[in-house]
Amino acid sequence: MRIDITFTDRVGIAHEVLAVLATRRLNVVAVEVDPPHIFIDAPQLASAALAGLRAALLEVGGVGDVTAVDMLPGTRRRLHLAAVLAAMPDPVLAVDAGGLVILSNAAADDIVGGTALVGKRLAELIDDEGFPREMIAAGFQVPAREVMLRGQPFQLDVRPIADSPTAEPSQVAGGVLTLHAPSRLGERLQALRNFDEGGFDAIIGDSPAMRALKARAARLAPVDAALLIMGETGTGKELIAHACHRASGRMGKTFLALNCAALPENLAESELFGYAPGSFTGAQRGGKPGLLELADQGTVFLDEVGEMSPYLQAKLLRFLNDGSFRRVGGEQEMRVNVRIISATHRKLDRMVAEGAFREDLFYRLNVLALQVPALRERDDDILLLARHFILRACAQAQRRPCRLTAAAAGALLTNPWRGNVRQLESVIFRAVTMIDGPWLDAPDLEIATSSVAVEPNPDATGDGLGDGIADSWDAAVADFERGLLNRLFPRFPSSRKLAGRLKTSHTMVANKLRKYGIKSTT
Ligand SMILES: Nc1ncnc2c1ncn2[C@@H]1O[C@H](COP(=O)(O)OP(=O)(O)OP(=O)(O)O)[C@@H](O)[C@H]1O
């Protein structure tokens, strides 16, 4: 039986209480003192004997009460902890300061075939002799990295166990190690992405063009083949890609996106394919899985795929042909099952004809295709979208919804929307933050300014001089130059490289970069 003795704290009381049990020859297997309670586990104590023991204990000065309890608080805490650990899908280990496992959850035990890890040394588990020593020496204050445990890769997160966050390595009592399997890491990343609404319902649009698009997309989404989404910038290609993922058999698996225009070739390569341990200076020691590995069984969205370098085009083609690739600097052949959805605002067929994009890759990406109409081709959607963004912006600003005046609605309907839905979204958000009253009027919209600021899209508009394009020759040329340099600079991130690519003078390119305020982000 287990009992709870309530007492008023005084020196020697615990000793006197235990003496009472000893005189009755009761074997005590556990004692927990947590003033004003002493909890005792005495298995031989029968219920019938409790009244007598209680009377004897109440004789001890300071003892207030004696009651039976079903469990000692320490046992209860251990059970709670075990339940919490068991509920964690990722393997978790706690080790002491010398790297001996003192606690592990079932997911961690599974790595070694279900046998308890408690009592094992980290050096026996991690397939890298030096790293456990390094981690212990650093007081478990090491950055996250990839490790192999019994041949399986994990992303490792380590937290020191210490009284204070500023404890020296020598004061640390051990560490908690959380291991994320690459596939689950992808799910965690995905959980952070703001696609809560997801699905086709999140795509606002009731125009005939959008209805047709959504109907076609809903038919293509479940077909497990590469999908190419074409359309001008800001038309909602990524939104549609995500809706297609959600409507496919891969729903519930990871969806990860890479913007091929935003990164130089080497970074885009390691983001997509990952890199092997020690593949380049500054790389994480243990290597890093790329999006393809992280999204295994799910979908990878390649935005601006037309901007991919020839080298990456070749590597992607190989992956699309047989599902295999190698990490940067790696020897091992990796195999994953990932659906590729790609998007471009460029005319890829024209790029193929000009030799700027691989024809074989184009056909691989373009097994299924969707063309997203520009916003100016679906007037019916402009006010629908504007009202949707007004409600969202007002909700975010925690204010009452405002309404468009007739003049504002007219201005929205006649604007060319070269930046499409993204431009409309930001025009509305900016306007909502600037007004206090119940009406959003035409001058609040700042459309003239915002439409000039948006990068033009000459590829998508054919001759680049469609409705609403810059109002003079010089402005159109400036728009074209700015767009061209903005697109190429991430891949040729110096004026010399860019001049080489464009086969023109380095000084001229440097002057233009300065003129348009285009700077390296690296
Ligand atoms: N039909 C739509 N309904 C609601 N929101 C939309 C719609 N289309 C686009 N958006 C919103 O507009 C913004 C741009 O959309 P998205 O990023 O999907 O466009 P994109 O075509 O992929 O752009 P880019 O080519 O520049 O990458 C996002 O905030 C998106 O939520």
Automatic annotation (TrEMBL):
CDD domains: AAA, PAS. Keywords: Activator, Aromatic hydrocarbons catabolism, ATP-binding, Cytoplasm, DNA-binding, Nucleotide-binding, Repressor, Transcription, Transcription regulation, Two-component regulatory system. Its main location: cytoplasm. Residues 203-433 form the Sigma-54 factor interaction domain. PROSITE patterns: ACT, PAS, SIGMA54_INTERACT_1, SIGMA54_INTERACT_4. GO terms for molecular function: ATP binding; DNA binding. One of its GO terms (cellular component) is cytoplasm. The keyword Cytoplasm applies. It comes from the Bacteria. It is found in: Cytoplasm. This is HTH-type transcriptional regulatory protein TyrR. It comes from Skermanella stibiiresistens SB22. The lineage of its organism: Bacteria, Pseudomonadati, Pseudomonadota, Alphaproteobacteria, Rhodospirillales.
